[in-house]
Amino acid sequence: MKVSLFVLTLWCVTIHGLLYPEESETRQIRSLDGLWEFRLDEAGVGKTEQWFAKPHLPSPTILMPVPASYNDITQNITIHQHIGMVWYACDFFFHNTAPRWVLRFQAAHYEANVWVNGQSAVDHSGGHLPFEVDITRFISSSASYSRVRIVVAVNNTLTSTTLPPGYLHIYNPTYRVLETPFDFFNYAGIDRSVILYSTSNNYIQDITIDTDSIDFDSQHVATSAVLSYSVTIGGTTHQANTLRLIIELFDAQGILVVNNTDSQSRLIVNKPNLWEPCGMNHTHPCTEESYLYTLKVTLYDDASPMNILDIYRIPHVGIRTIRLTDSKFLVNERPFYFHGANAHEDSDIRGKGFDRVILAKHFNLYGWLHGNAFRTSHYPYADEFYAMANRFGIAIIGETPAVGLKKDQFVSQATLDHHKQVVTEMISRDRNHPSVLMWSLANEPESGDPEAKGYFSALADFTRLLAAGRPITYVISATYDSDQGIQFFDMICINRYFAWYSQAGRLDQIPSLVSEELANWRHRFPNKPILMSEYGADTVSGLHNDPPLMFTEEYQKDFLSGYHGSFDNVSSIVHPNTGYFVGELVWNMFDFATDQSITRVGGLNRKGLFTRQRQPKAAAFVMKKRYQELEFIPTEVTH
Ligand code: GCB
């Protein structure tokens, strides 16, 4: 089929997914990661003094690794706790070997302004999602190579309308404090990779792919699946009448399964291999790979035979369905029970900086723990986390950076608009990942506030139109009888800290309090499954006491175990007919950095099953044993 002009003009009004930069026969990729020039701009004068137009940033500059948060790279406390603007710059030789070049930042926290060769190229607000700009126009097209300078100003100041919000208090010129209504350090800088990639003038701009349905036989073997897809073309329009597409789906062995030439259509896959979360009794262990297909899209120009313009592959197409009943979370029509631990993008020295060493260790520890799920608390993670989760069958609850919302935000149209923008960017980026099973739109808003009702009603209505087949939720700290917003969502996710933030030290109180809490939520919302999205206790590695006292390894073990009986009593897999509880996620997988405070020894939240250096505490072995046992609970097919 011809790619219509309609499709070509549509991209002007649609927000596209910013396809992950993949190398191909037609696309070159160049990493700009490395040591960049860096300096603070404490006086906030860089823009008026036009630092972006100078051959060097004014001294003093230091070398700063990209990607990394800048805070913990030096011994300088001023850099560690800086609030405001910082500047980065890098020069490189650019070889003019393709018609179109795109500069992409995988993320910069929070507000970023980018100049290329002294000219303003792109601005972005929001610290956890990618942004990119076509920089071809800034570069000489006649020379075969040229020197290019990129300058980036990054401002980490949070305000009442950023996500997450923050409040700057200026007590005097030397005493400024950024109050952050959330419990993690506000790491900042260019903390994910910077990439330059090429395309042709006409190029594949966006691809979406979803599993519409799967047919099963009486043994619950999948007999066929229907996938729907859509491809958007970007670029100059003069060739539109002669542009053509080929869409091909390959299996894991690289064998062509099905193809099509429409820009938007359906693919029927016979005897599909399904993507499944690991570690349920009927699937693969979490150390083995889940089944993935590859979608290859080829764009070519019919007017010039064999003129291939662009090739893009999505290497992680998973065939699977998601369906909620009033008491179960079904994946491929089998009850799925989330079990694992949430995390932060956080590690020594790097802060939030993306690092493949940390990524690989994270997933190896997940396999060791037999965890099959985590929430991207409290913001969208680097794309590479989702790619690994697709591969190993780890379920993800993708979360926005809306943590710590209260009345100030609920009454602000600017916040709601920005929240919608972030939801749109997150879903556009992550919708093709089979691992993403649900969207969480916020963490612990003050949802007992009457103003929360209208805010979350509007946000839920907006998100449903984009949700790409996933349920939506937000994570609740409010009480069951005060929450105003979750009525508009599909699932109840609650964070509870009995015997920690309340009933301190009273492990004996946990079972009755947890059971009562779950029963109360169920009573108010009999049609929504419930998940415990956080529970945990700070634990200083190596601190012991018997009987168990708070902060000891013994306490963490007994604290976590204390919750499990109550979970099992209403579990949707232990009690398929009466259960409604669909999962448990420990807070936290690793100790992580926070602001300094009297409750955070050494500036760390120590609720990790593992230390920040990724070594297990005693409770990690308790959780590993429990998760291994959970895998053997047989689950019943629902159709
Ligand atoms: C929570 C928050 C999380 C905190 C945690 C804690 O409820 O969602 O961000 O880190 O409690 O340890 O206090």
TrEMBL record:
EC code(s) of this entry: 3.2.1.31
Start and end residues of each Glycosyl hydrolases family 2 sugar binding domain: 29-199
Native organism taxonomy: Eukaryota, Metazoa, Spiralia, Gnathifera, Rotifera
Known function: Plays an important role in the degradation of dermatan and keratan sulfates.
Protein name: Beta-glucuronidase
InterPro entries attached to this UniProt entry: Beta-gal/glucu_dom_sf (IPR036156), Galactose-bd-like_sf (IPR008979), GH (IPR017853), Glyco_hydro_2 (IPR006101), Glyco_hydro_2_AS (IPR023232), Glyco_hydro_2_cat (IPR006103), Glyco_hydro_2_N (IPR006104), Ig-like_fold (IPR013783)
Superkingdom field: Eukaryota
Glycoside hydrolase family 2 catalytic domain boundaries: 322-631
Keyword Signal on entry: yes
GO biological process: carbohydrate metabolic process; glucuronoside catabolic process
